[in-house]
Each structure stands twice: as C-alpha cells, then as structure tokens.
Specification:
The chain is α/β, with parallel strands linked by helices and about 290 residues long. The chain has nine helices and ten strands.
Length: about 290
C-alpha cells in the first residue's frame, strides 16, 4: 500500500501532463491521410478570424444554370453530389471544378458553365460538392464547414467522381481557395487519368512523395498574401522540381479571392488575366 501511495503522484503526472497526441493515419486508395491539420492543409486557417475576414459574404446571385444537379456513388456507401454539364458529343474529356470554402453555390455553377462554353462544349464538366450539400454565405459558418470536413470522406468523394467519369476519362482539375488545394490533391488521386491541374490561391501539397504521383504539370494562380506566401509558393516550386514535375505560376498583386466575382474585392483586371491563363492551359490539355 505504501508503494502504491508513493507511485500515485507519478501516475497522475503522467496522465495529466504528458502531451497526448490525437494524430492517426489511414491509407485511402493510395494516398496517406493524416487526421490533423498539417501545415499544407488550408483547414488550419478555417477558424482564424483574420482569414475569415478575407472572405466578405458573397454578393447575391440568382442563377439558373445549363447543367443539372446529380449524385454519384462513393466507396463509403454515401452518395456524393455535384453539378454536371455533359459534353454535346460522347467524350472522355473531363474538367473537375472544386468549390471555394463557401460550398458549391451558384457562383461555382456559373463558372462551371463558363468553362464548359469556353472549352467548346466538348468537355464534360463536373463541379464536385465537397460539403455534401451544405453551403453558406457567412464567413464564420463557411470556416466551420471547411474545418469540419473529414479527410477520408473528401478522398472518397474525389475517387467517386473519377469512378463516375469512367476508367478512360482524361481529367483536368480547377479550383479556388479550399478548392485550389483540392484541385491539386484531385490530380494526385487521379493518377494516370489526370491531365492537368489549375489551382487558384490554394495551399500546395508539400510532400514530395505525393507530388511524384502527379501525371501532369500544374498551373498555380496565386495572390499576394501572408499565409500562402511567396515563400510557400517558391518552396512548392522547389518541391515540384525535386519531384520531377513542372509548375508554372504567377503571383498576382491582389487579395486572396481576387478572382471570385462574388467577392466585393473582386479584381476584374487580374481575374481576366488569370482566367485567360487557366483557359489557355486547359485548352492545351484537350
């Protein structure tokens, strides 16, 4: 009994003062998922009031798109959602569109339609809903939605999109902010089906072994900001070079979200240049 009493303080100290780790990893169809927000995960910023302040509530938009809302199967048994515009003729050409942190709203639907038309209507365009039907126009709520996404579910949604497109699909990806990161991650997950990735001001993947899985080059369209900074982008460029992959990028003198027409700080001139670069890049892939 005396020995137990002596040891009790040591036991309590170990329980309460030794740092406890909540990290764990799982492998999901070829990509390793770590269940903490790593330095290259945009969700680390989601609840930061300063980052939320960069996202003014979207301006109202009443838009009736040319596409249709669909569901598609995922391996976890829960159907995923998307906004789909089918090519006029049967085609293995695909563009996956990844939402900003607001969710798959009418602005994303309109931009998906714009890509479809400007690509000549011979490319299937699928805007992938990464929030399973949820969206918000409130910065704090949008940050909460982004922070609550689960890695395995996000990967299953992307893999479900590739399965929906089919084994012969040639897929390019484009996205903004949270979706900019997922444009790159989708390209990694897509393997040989990937033909390109355009990422607007999204946090790059830093793991060189993951970047080596890319089957394409990447176009990065970034903003002048402190989080996804010039240093972060230059390191991404170096990592891509180490991985034997090509990155073409431009840092625009605009705020995060400068290319989003829903943003009251929308920079029409820079957005036009960025879209021209994105469109030229995508046209070169099809």
């Amino acid at each position: 009994m005396y020995r137990i009493l002596i040891l009790l303080p040591v036991i309590f100290a170990f329980i309460f003062f030794v740092p406890q780790s909540s990290n764990y990893e799982e492998s999901t169809d070829g990509i390793t998922i770590c269940h903490t927000f790593l330095p290259d995960d945009m969700r680390q910023f989601a609840l930061d009031p300063e980052f939320q302040a960069l996202h003014a509530s979207p301006l109202p938009l009443d838009y009736d798109g040319i596409g249709k809302k669909i569901t598609f199967k995922t391996s976890d048994g829960t159907d995923a959602k998307g906004y789909f515009i089918k090519a006029k003729k049967k085609s293995n050409k695909w563009l996956f569109v990844y939402q900003e942190w607001w969710g798959l709203n009418e602005y994303i639907e309109r931009q998906s339609d714009t890509f479809y038309k400007d690509l000549g209507e011979n490319v299937n365009v699928l805007a992938v809903d990464m929030y399973d039907g949820k969206s918000s126009s409130n910065p704090q709520e949008a940050g909460k939605l982004m922070s609550e996404t689960k890695d395995a579910r996000l990967v299953n949604i992307v893999n479900g999109a590739f399965a929906f497109a089919g084994p012969k699909a040639k897929v390019a990806n484009v996205g903004w902010c949270f979706g900019g990161s997922w444009s790159l991650r989708s390209a990694i997950l897509g393997g040989k089906n990937t033909i390109g990735s355009v990422m607007y001001y999204g946090m790059p993947v830093s793991d060189i072994d993951e970047l080596k899985k890319l089957n394409s080059d990447v176009l990065g369209l970034f903003a002048t900001e402190t989080r996804i900074s010039k240093e972060v982008i230059e390191q991404f460029d170096a990592n891509m070079n180490t991985a034997g992959k090509k990155l073409t990028y431009k840092i625009f003198s605009g705020v995060h979200g400068f290319a989003n027409p829903s943003n009251p700080k929308f920079d029409e001139e820079n957005a036009k240049v960025a879209y021209g670069m994105a469109l030229d890049y995508l046209k070169s892939k099809y």
